[in-house]
Amino acid sequence: MKKTKIDHYTDKEALEFHSHNKPGKIEINSSKPMTTKRDLALAYSPGVAAPVKAIYENPEAAYDYTSKGNLVAVISNGSAILGMGNLGALASKPVMEGKAVLFKRFADIDSIDLEIDSQNSDEIINSIKNFACSFGGINLEDIAAPDCFIIEEKLKEILDIPVFHDDQHGTAIITTAALINALDISRKSIKEIKVVVNGAGASAMACTNLFKNSGVPQKNIIMVDRTGVIYRGRDGLNQWKSSHAIETKHRTLDDAIKDADVFLGLSAKGALSKEMVKKMAKNPIIFACANPDPEITPEEIMEVRDDSIIATGRSDYPNQVNNLIGFPYIFRGALDVRAKTINEEMKVAAANAIAKLAREDVPDEVAAAMGGDRPRYGKNYIIPSTFDPRLISIIPSAVAKAAMDSGVARKEIKDFEIYKEQLKQRLNPSVTIMQGINSYIKKNQKRIVFADGEDKNTLKAAIAFKNSKLGIPILVGKKEKIKEQINEIGYNDDFDIEIINSQDKEKREKYVKYLFKKMQREQGLLERDCDRLVRNDRVIWASCMVACGDADGAVTGNTRRFGASLDKIKQVVSPRQGEIMFGLNMVVYKGKTIFVGDTSVNEYPSSEELAKIASSSARVVKLFGFVPKVAFVSHSTFGQPLTSRTKHIKKAVEILKNKNVDFEFDGDMQPDVALNEEYKELYPFSNIVGNANILIMPGQHSAAISYKMMKSLGETKVIGPLLIGLGQPIEIAPLRSSTSEIINLASIAAYSADVIDYKKN
Questions:
Q1: 209-261 residue pLDDT tens
Q2: What is the pLDDT of residues 284-295, one digit of tens each?
Q3: What rounded mean pLDDT belongs to the chain?
Q4: Do 627 and 528 share a structural domain?
């Protein structure tokens, strides 16, 4: 059983993350333009009167004229926060904001967190009842039992929108999906298995109910709480536990576990022993889902039962029971058909869809998103990855259809194939790019030099790089200064991270010899000149480490201008043979990913250079899992207006036409023509119009102005510039880059070191 270490972060880092820039994790943005007096008049008075009247006459019109249909309230009273207990409503707000972020990230659902400062279930019910009309759905979270049962049941009675307690039903759906596949692999019938459920909280109750609704006979499920087996006639049972009581002579978990086919643990660390596991039936299915530590570890299980199928709630083992696979997509499907509720049929449909997806062959694009890993359906892969991009089209479709078939949908989906395509378009595939790269480099650990080791953001990036198991960071700088910074961040100064500088005499002499050999003829430098460069410049030192094989890649910048860093790197490392060196930025904006080059190296590329930049950009974009579609952009479109610069760009296009390249391209064209599908009608002869994902700019100035303006205006994520065409994997972070930006570039350097053959240089 393969296990990896869980990422570690200090409390100080977590607090800084939540407080940086804007406090919290969510904000509200307008979906309509608010730039003119007319816009304001339409948005508010007097224009808003029209939808007000329409909704008054027909309440269903709220779905057409407001955000209701894509808005979920994430609600808690903080009585059961992440296993930490009852810490109150306000303390639960960071968790609820996090839930709202997940809704948006994985299903494009807008959410508002609402913390209700009450421990009285009637008060909570009345509060939600009174504001529920504003929302398309209600997600209950971190509410202690039995109040969570009472609140959910009552709200489902009085509201006509989906009410979903994720701690219960989200866990139940994923666990049921895992059970379906585990039974298939072990060739057991759901009608004949014996199930033992250890735990009688909200999640355990929900899982048991869904197991029954999926086909497990009630008499075959034994539930165990802190007192022992829940059996008919036992004193002190509440109405919820009583519903799961059965006729049995078993009184303890040790009694019940004998010959059990399935163990589901939603209880506490150590609840299941190796001796108990030995008593289970052939090919036992063991879901040890207690957090943070399971009832029994997979390693302990495998010591006594190598025929078992195992799942846990942890990310460091295979088969993680993770609610993230469920709740965003279940709500997506429910909202899209304007469902009145989320019923058992919809839950079963979601579980079956998840189970079915795990059985399908993982396609190339999914393997790329998962860092090159291609899992196969089997004992260690019974639940799909949380980052499988197919989840967004598969689960909502199944949920929506079940809602329609069971009569709780108020809106019909007529063509599910079209609906699935629409779902795919809600999420940007580039979101998974860095996750895929990071997954890949975790399995192919590289030594990456962080040249600006004394800079706080760079240091935090290096620590996060190490803690996330992305690779082995090496810091360049003075040890005393770096250790001071480490203390400030919240770690002990004995934190295990390699620090190096020019005081390492052996390496210094090695790098001086390398540099002198390279530069004595190129620049006429003396050996002492090279020694001065190596001793005094951290970028030179870091570049030499990579060039001499003491590191696999490097990231620098952040403390000096891009051009200054590039000049130093070029003294040490030459461009790859036959290639041009340039900067390529990945720009992500509202569901679209665009690559822009050259943003940082060549001021005014020739036609031949533009053609080379296009070819190299296409090669790089393929490595990220995209099909390259190149547009040579200009102030003109297909020669209108015709200028000397237009001719220059058209020549680059002609050069590529004569090279028989393996990617689509066209130009010249204005950026809006390249990106906006509305222009296809005007230029039907071009496959690139409206479809471009690579923009080759006519000059560095226009490229830099464009992407920096987009980045500064907000809602745009920019990765890079990636330094393409260099003879070694070295990346330059722009001045004042954030920690996450530096980490991304370090990851790309590590990825490049493995997927690009630099020996051909």
A1: 999 999 999 999 999 999 999 999 999 899 999 999 999 999 999 999 999 99
A2: 999 999 877 899
A3: 88
A4: no
- Amino acid present at 336: D
Q: Is 50 exposed, middle or buried (0-12, 13-18, 19+ CB in 10 A)?
A: exposed
Q: Which amino acid is at 715?
A: E
Domain count, the chain: 4
For strand 582-589 and strand 716-724, is the pairing parallel, antiparallel, or unpaired? Answer: antiparallel
Same domain, 154 and 195: no
Which residues, including other chains, have CB under 8 Å from residue 617's CB and lie 6 or more apart? 584, 595, 597, 628, 630, 694, 696, 724
pLDDT tens for each residue of 424-463: 777 765 556 777 788 788 888 999 999 998 888 898 889 8
Higher-confidence residue: 645 or 75? 75
- The Cα–Cα gap between 583 and 573 comes to 16
Query: What's the token pair of residue 625?
Result: 């899992």
Are residues 99 and 188 located together in one domain of the fold?
no
* Residue type present at position 526: L
Q: Which of 3, 44, 424, 604 is catalytic?
A: 44
Does residue 44 carry a catalytic annotation? yes
| pLDDT value at residue 4 | 43
Which structural domain range is residue 269 located in? Answer: 183-323
Which parts of 145-208 are beta strand (E)?
163-165, 195-198
Decide which of 640 and 367 is more confident: 640
Residue 176: strand, helix, or coil: helix
Is 231 considered catalytic here? no
Residues 453 and 487 in one domain: yes
Q: Indicate if the pLDDT at residue 603 is higher than 90.
A: no
Q: Decide: helix, strand or coil at residue 299.
A: helix
pTM of the entire predicted model: 0.72
Q: Quote the strand ranges of 99-214, DSSP E.
A: 110-115, 137-140, 163-165, 195-198
What is the layout of strands, in order, in the sheet containing 472-476? 498-500, 472-476, 447-450, 553-557, 730-733
Domain check: are 157 and 187 in the same one? no
Residue 586, CA distances (Å) to 142, 199, 717 in order: 38, 48, 8
What is the domain-level CATH number for residue 722? 3.40.50.10750
What is the spatial distance between Cα 265 and Cα 248, in angstroms, rounded to a whole number?
A: 20
Annotated catalytic residue, options 53, 56, 65, 99: 99
- Residue 23: asked if its preceding bond is cis (omega within 30°), the reply is no
Residue with tokens 């109150």: 88
In a domain, residue 329? The reply is: no
- Indicate if 247 and 287 belong to the same structural domain: yes
pLDDT > 70: percent of the chain: 95
Asked if residue 330 is part of any domain, the answer here is no
Residues 187 and 315 in one domain: yes
Band of the pLDDT at 130, cuts 50, 70, 90?
very high
Q: Residue 725 and residue 472: Cα distance in Å, rounded? A: 24
Q: Report angle CA 409, 413, 417 to the nearest 5 degrees.
A: 140
Q: What is the pLDDT of residue 367?
A: 60
Choose between 328 and 362: higher pLDDT: 328
